Amino acid sequence: MAENKTFGDFINDMTSLDVVTLTGNLTVQVSALEGGSDDDDSKPLRFSRIMRQLEGRVLKKDSEIAALAATHVSLDRDTVTFVKENLSPEEAVYLEFHNETVKAAGIARAAMADGIAKLLLGSKA
């Protein structure tokens, strides 16, 4: 179900960037997905439905997740990054993935902001 977001929420979202890399296990039974059943093979399995179910399970007792890294970047480029201590070699690979994701998200956010500016200001931006 979509949240009712205001223009202020949009501006707040556009002025910061958060990337969190989690490790652990979250399991969803395909037959238990909202709007799906074992007997209904005609409906395609949609990623958005799976993600909605996972979001609802994050706080359940049987879910085990841990933050490996979290990065917050403000509009003025102030950045805060949390990294789990004593990373194993396998976890270091996830940290590289996290850093690449932060970089890619920043590039995508800048391109989106540029596109919005061009829409609002015309081709002069």
Question: How is this structure best summarized?
Answer:
With 125 residues, the protein is of the alpha+beta class.
Count structural domains.
2
Helix content: 40-55%
Q: What portion of the residues fall into strands of 2 or more residues?
A: 15-25%
Average pLDDT rating: 79
Low-confidence stretches: none
Please give the count of helices. 3
Number of strands: 3
Describe the sheet with the most strands: 3 strands, antiparallel
- Outline: globular
Query: What is the string of helix and strand elements?
Result: HEHEEH
Content-based structural category: alpha+beta
Would you spell out the secondary-structure blueprint of this structure?
Elements: H1 7-14, E1 16-25, H2 47-57, E2 64-74, E3 79-83, H3 89-121
Antiparallel strand pairs: 1-2, 2-3
